[in-house]
Design goal:
seven-stranded mixed β-sheet; 117 residues; single chain; mainly beta
Length: 117
């Protein structure tokens, strides 16, 4: 029932920045835990960052200090600010929503981030 639409991916030079956005449908955004995951070619989908419905955050070690996850409840939107991008950040990035009460997950279709010179 929850629909997620990502945007903001693209091609960026190493050391550059991108901001991903994910807009969630419905009226239960404040009840959702939100996250970003990524999947590089030939690899499993991996956690990048999560933000709870209460605003707490957690990051993968590989992006800590470079990426920032945030949410705007008034806009039903979660963001991933990505700075100091590296070629190894190249992946399809997926928005995830979890209904906290039921631990039900919803996924966006993904947006491609390519970091290359």
């Amino acid at each position: 029932q929850v629909q997620l639409v990502e945007s903001g991916g693209g091609l960026v030079q190493p050391g550059g920045s991108l901001r991903l956005s994910c807009v969630a449908s419905g009226s239960i955004f404040s009840l959702l835990g939100m996250g970003w995951y990524r999947q590089a070619p030939g690899k499993q989908r991996a956690l990048v960052a999560v933000i709870t419905n209460g605003g707490g955050t957690n990051y993968a070690d590989s992006v800590k200090g470079r990426f920032t996850i945030s949410r705007d409840n008034a806009k039903n939107t979660v963001y991933l600010q990505m700075n100091s991008l590296k070629p190894e950040d190249t992946a399809v990035y997926y928005c995830n929503a979890r209904v906290v009460s039921t631990r039900t997950d919803y996924w966006g279709k993904g947006t491609l981030v390519t970091v290359s010179s």
